[in-house]
Design brief:
With 79 residues, the protein is mostly helical. Helix content is 56%, strand content 0%.
Length: 79
């Protein structure tokens, strides 16, 4: 989305690593406010133990952010 916005503004030749760095810096400010709901892990465990096949849908900025959150909260074992 950031890249599309920048292209619309005439910025077509920005290196991808620079965009990644900008996004990382942007989200670094808010990362301290990211949290897992208190009941989330218990709910995930219950669903997994019931035989449900689980997937993950997120409104995070991109795949890297999702993977970072999954790792931070230790919930990768459910997916």
């Amino acid at each position: 989305i950031l890249q599309d916005l920048l292209v619309e503004q005439g910025q077509t030749d920005l290196p991808e690593n620079l965009l990644r760095q900008a996004l990382d810096e942007f989200y670094r400010i808010t990362e301290q406010n990211w949290h897992l709901d208190a009941e989330a892990e218990e709910t995930l465990a219950t669903l997994q133990n019931s035989g449900a096949r689980l997937g993950l849908v997120s409104n995070a900025g991109d795949d890297k952010d999702v993977r970072q959150l999954v790792e931070k909260f230790g919930i990768g074992k459910y997916f």
